[in-house]
Write a structure and sequence with these properties.
- This protein is mainly alpha-helical.
- 63% of the residues lie in helices and 4% in strands.
- The protein is built from 5 helices and 2 strands.
- The chain has a two-stranded antiparallel sheet with strand order 1-2.
- The longest helix is centred in the first third of the chain and has 39 residues.
- It is elongated.
């Protein structure tokens, strides 16, 4: 039994490392999309400009929010494909069904990241990135650092939800009866 448990922990650790490598590539994709979209809008200094304001309130839909959403979608499609073919290879569901589950699972991590990004980039926030180092343009732009920090905080949430839900039916995951097998160690695998 100890060998079987060790094997399961080893597979889980291997999956986490692969998921992290895929996630790192996804962070690069996410940041590239954010950079390209901000460049197309004139630069990161314009990211907080309102696109649409709710009448009678201070709330506005900002370009920054659209950038976060588009970067999330593009990076998650990228991550899904890599995770499907490498991290959790042998998944038994269709590509579209898996993508929908992956995106749905990613929403929780994205919401965590989005809240963090808004908190770090909103001038009225108590955790607004300080002006001593951060600015509104170039590599020190709050827009990019808020995006990156938000994505990094959302990633562990994303792994847990995807491991337990999206990729629960892949060839590397033991079937439920294997979890409590009475077979001698080494034969249950």
């Amino acid at each position: 039994m100890a060998e079987a448990a060790t094997g399961r922990w080893h597979r889980l650790a291997t999956q986490f490392v692969k998921f992290a490598i895929v996630g790192a590539s996804g962070v690069i994709v996410n940041m590239l999309v954010a950079f390209i979209m901000n460049k197309a809008n004139g630069g990161a200094q314009y990211a907080r400009n309102p696109l649409w304001t709710v009448p009678g309130t201070d709330w506005a839909l900002r370009y920054s929010y659209i950038v976060y959403l588009v970067a999330f979608v593009v990076a998650n499609v990228w991550n899904y494909q890599l995770n499907r073919t490498w991290t959790f290879k042998g998944t038994r569901q269709t590509w579209w069904r898996g993508l929908v589950a992956f995106m749905a699972a990613g929403v929780l991590g994205a919401l965590v990241g989005f809240v963090i990004k808004v908190a770090l980039t909103h001038p009225g926030s108590p955790v607004y990135l300080p002006g001593a180092f951060f600015g509104d343009s170039g590599w020190r732009a709050r827009e990019y650092w808020g995006q990156l920090i938000g994505v990094l905080f959302g990633t562990p949430v994303n792994f847990v939800v995807n491991r337990l839900w999206t990729f629960r039916h892949h060839a590397g995951t033991p079937a439920p009866q294997d979890e409590v097998s009475s077979a001698p160690a080494g034969l249950a695998e």
